[in-house]
Each structure stands twice: as C-alpha cells, then as structure tokens.
Amino acid sequence: MKKLSILEMNRLTPEEFKKYPKIPLIVVLDNIRSLHNVGSIFRTSDAFLIEKIILCGVTCPPPHPEIHKTALGAESTVEWIYTKDTMDAIHQLKKKDYYIYAIEQTHESIYLSDLKLDMNRKYAVVLGNEVKGVQQCVVDDCDDCLEIPQMGTKHSLNVSVATGIVLWSFFDQLKKL
After folding, report:
1. With contact defined as beta carbons under 8 Å apart, do 177 and 48 qualify?
2. CA 61 – CA 75 distance, rounded (Å)
3. What pLDDT is attached to residue 61?
4. What would the pLDDT profile of 61-108 be if each residue is shown by its tens digit?
C-alpha cells in the first residue's frame, strides 16, 4: 500500500471549509487550562466538521502560539467565540433549541456506545477542566450526560482524547456525505 500524498488527499481549502456544510454540533469548553488541549480540540473539530467551538472561563482563545502548535491552523478555520461564563453559553444554546450533553461520569450518564442521535436535532457537548471536569452547575443544567465506557484502572481520559472519541461518534451518526 502506498500512502497518499498531500495532493492526493483532496483537502478543502480554508475558504472551502468555511462554506462546507457542518454537522449540527457545537463544542463547549468549560475552563480548559492546557493550550495544547485547546489546539488539539480545534484540529479534531476541523476534521469532523463541527459547527462551532465556544471557549469559556479560563479557556484561552486564539490567537496564541501554543494553541497553533497543535491546531495547525484549525483555529482559523473552525468558527469559535469566547464567553466568560459557561452557564451563559448553555442558556444561549438552550434558547436556540440545542440538546446539550455534558461529557461527564454521573449516576445517570448514558454510555456513548448507547447514544442514538436524531438527524433533525441540534446538539452541543460540554467538556470540562482537566482536573475538575465539567462544573456541577453546568452538569445540572445540561439535558443529559454522556460517559465514555472505560474498562482499565484509570477512570478518566485526557480532555482532547475524550473530545476526539465523542466528536467521532457524533460525526459518524450525523454526517451527510
């Protein structure tokens, strides 16, 4: 097997990407500290045609060299906004009829593997701080919680890794290629 060259991959230009139809999913970052995680989430959001990223609280917005290091330009292609308070972002999304999932382990969380999405609905996922997770007040205001099943001795994943798993699952169900 011969690997594809960059030219053979038929990648969208940044201009084409901005016009290309996105899946109805917004990513909300609740106080993410690591700029490398933020950049990685931008890059993954670009790969899976995410509608927008909402950066909240201590989450640093672009432009920043440490975000660019892992985003590799996706911070310029994926639409984003900054909101100081995550709860304000959640309330605005609810007013626009988004169904909101916190990505968090709770007593009532749904395993990501059991998720069934409605093609006619808009969604948002909230991912939380590397140490504390999604704020409890935000969890309380979300419609549901999703949990990535984990069988090992650790019961957490890096937030950018968790984002990749979750975004792939949504993309796989919502893509209209």
Report:
1. no
2. 9
3. 98
4. 999 999 999 999 999 999 999 999 999 999 999 999 999 999 999 999
Q: Token match 């699952």: residue?
A: 169
134 and 175 Cβ atoms separated by less than 8 Å? no
> What CA–CA distance (Å, rounded) separates 116 from 89?
24
- Say which residue the tokens 């999405």 belong to: 117
Tallying the residues shown for the chain, one arrives at 177
Joined tokens for residue 120: 């006619």
Angle at 27 between CA 21 and CA 33, to 5 degrees: 140
Give the 3-state secondary structure of residue 94.
helix
Strands across the sheet with 110-111, in order?
A: 80-83, 50-56, 23-30, 122-128, 98-103, 144-147, 110-111
